[in-house]
Amino acid sequence: MNFRALPVQLHSTAEDVARFFKNDRGISKFAIEEPANKDLDYRPTLQASSPECYDIWIEVSELPYLRSLDRAVLYCVTNARPVKLYVAFPSGVPTSEYKKHVDEARANGVGAIEAAAGRCTVIHEARLLSLAGVRCEERSKFPQRYRAALSSAETTFKNGDPSKGCAIVYDEIEALSRRVAKKIQSKKLTTKAAAVIPTAKTDRENWAPLMEALLREADFNKLPKELTKNMLMRVAALTSVRNDSGHKPKNKAAQTKRDRELRTRFESAVDILRDFADAAKALHV
Amino acid sequence: MDTLSPAKAELTDIAVERIDRNPENPRIYFRPAELETLLNSIRRHGVQVPISVYKERGRYVLIDGERRWRCSLKLNRQTIPALVQEKPDALGNLLLMFNIHALREQWDLLTIAMKLPRVIALLRSRLQREPTEKEIAEETGLRRSEIRRSKLLMEMPEEYRDQLLSELKRPKNQQQLSEDFFIEMERALKTVERALPDALHDKNGARDVLIEKYRKEVIPNLIDLRYIPKIARAANVSADRGKAVKVLKALFSPNRYSAEEAYTDSVSEAYTERDLIKRLETLVDRLEHIDVRSTDRTFRDTLRELLSRLNQILARLS
User: Fold this and answer.
1) pLDDT at A248 over 80
2) What is residue A203's predicted lDDT score, i.e. its pLDDT?
3) In CATH, which of 3.30.1050, 3.40.1350, 2.60.34, 3.30.70 is domain A8-132?
4) What's the pLDDT score for residue B44?
5) What distance in Å separates the CA atoms of residue B143 and residue B179, rounded to the nearest whole number?
6) For the CA atoms of B279, B285, B288, B289, what is the dihedral angle to 10 degrees?
7) Which residues of A touch B29 (CB under 8 A)?
């Protein structure tokens, strides 16, 4: 490998990590110190394309994280660039520096790989930076029953399964909708006394018809003032994307587009869950 | 040194991609932490001082500014300001490196030591004789003490130079064995070799033991290595030569015996005695030159009092 910017004492670390990616991940073609993007003032030591339509950037350094990587991370997060960024470092980092830097890398979604005597150990995996930038609400703003699910949704999303992350939040909103529907039915908070919300009887009925019936039959004058028609319409709008897990992207542009959409979808679902849970509080569901 | 005329240098922006490092640059290790600081500065303020290059086969070769160039490359910059100079000859190229870098930056001494033989060889062929230390210093811009220290490192066996090289790869604060350690060790062993050869049968063995003892802090600091030449020069203070050989042999053996213990067990008292005598001689010398009329009574009484105490001590000793 022919490096120009990388200090000579780190060449063997770069070669070790390239060998590791070849043997462990089947990635054998690396560009060396090439521009990652014309708009970005950064060249990774090594970069490659993964068959899963994202880029792999590897920075070889003495420490598990460098402050100068912040900009590259921010660029990918802001522009939803599907990139997994790793820092490969030689063993022997002093204990005092090790934890601080590894924690910093982890917090930024950057993977850490330690190379020692020709062997590489993944300290932690890199996150797809296009997903890592998802906005996460403070969980203390939510009733306790949702916090565990939200935590799991956020981790699942950031760890590379954004559709599943969204689905976890949708499950919570759907369950809340059913509890609200049952309460409205049982308390007769409907326009006609004999009105029936058929799908509220069983949890097996579809979500979309349930929301349609709620919007049609609920008497908004009898409902708590926070539970407006607008609120239920926001929830109803989610039913169309509920099972839209999305297809596997065919190229990087499609991957960027999908990640951007799923980020918006996840953030908006979390907002709806927070507002819906707030609005339904008076119903004691 | 043949100089390059600044009038012929041209300041221009050149493509970062068209620049190659100078293979003669003695600097081997660029510490990433230092590069990181420069990188952040260039990101904020750009390259404020042009690099120096010369043109060769349609590309440019660095004379000065390798760190700025590396950072610019890393920052994906398209161009860098550069002073394009005439191509120097082989010796001129090397001496430029020394004069530009060694004077301005804190180079690792070993990197100088490794290039110095080539400088000396090129100077020899230019002068048609062996260059003096003064001439080498004038040409390279190095101090003579640096040349002597470099020579000590240069003369070490390759395996020890390699050990030092692998230490230099690490950031300064993580280096266990410094250049100063090797220089102190080499000086000490050279003195033993010269003054007390019976104590040193296996120089590499002694090196290995001293390195190990330093790593394990049996020898806790560099200053303690200076006890070794003092022990070797036992004859200078009329100390027991046989005892000195014995303690040095013990010091050069794998055990927990420290340099300070070896010094205390052999020549410490002799050096203390020499030191006291020298001080007393100086004192007496000064007193002899004092004008008695200018001294007052208290001063003379104090001297008598001290003399009486000295006599009491001497009476006890005998």
Assistant:
1) no
2) 60
3) 3.40.1350
4) 87
5) 17
6) -120
7) 7-9
Which ranges constitute the DSSP H helices of chain A? 11-25, 70-78, 95-107, 129-132, 144-158, 162-186, 207-217, 229-238, 252-279
Query: Of the candidates B78, B90, B101, B81, which has an alpha carbon nearest to the alpha carbon of residue B26?
Result: B101
Q: Is B310 on the interface with A (CB under 8 A)?
A: no
Q: Is the pLDDT of residue A202 over 60?
A: no
Confidence check: pLDDT of A246 > 70: no
pLDDT digit string (tens) for A73-120? 999 998 889 999 999 999 888 887 889 999 999 999 999 999 988 899
Q: How far apart are CA B71 and CA B85, in angstroms?
A: 22
Around A35, how many Cα atoms within 13 Å sit in the side-chain half-sphere?
13
What architecture is domain B6-150? Alpha-Beta Complex (3.90)
A161 CA to centre of own chain: 7
What local confidence, expressed as pLDDT, does residue A250 receive?
Answer: 80
Residue located via tokens 């999908």: A258
Domain boundaries, chain A: 8-132, 139-283
**Paired tokens of B241:** 């030569």
**B238 backbone dihedrals φ, ψ, rounded to 5°:** 55, 35
Q: With CB atoms and an 8 Å threshold, state whether B39 touches A68.
A: yes
* Ranges of each domain in chain B: 6-150, 162-266, 271-317
* Residues of chain B predicted below pLDDT 70: 1-8, 101-107, 171-173
Neighbours of B313 (CB within 10 A): 10
CA-closest candidate to residue A246, choices A153, A163, A132: A163
Residue type, B79: T
Q: Which residues of B touch A4 (CB under 8 A)?
A: 21, 70, 73
C-alpha span between B280 and B299 (Å, rounded): 18
At residue A201, the pLDDT reads: 57
Count CB neighbours of A102 within 10 A: 21
Whether B73 and A5 lie within 8 Å, measured CB to CB:
yes
**Partner A contacted by B174 (CB < 8 A):** yes
B40 touches chain A (CB under 8 A): yes
Per-residue tokens: A245: 């897990």
Asked if the model's pLDDT at residue A204 lies above 80, the reply is: no
- Longest CA–CA span in chain A (Å) reads 82
CA atoms within 13 A on the CB side of B97: 23
| pLDDT of res. A27 | 93
Query: What ipTM describes this predicted complex?
Result: 0.71
Is B60 in contact with B91 (CB distance < 8 Å)? no
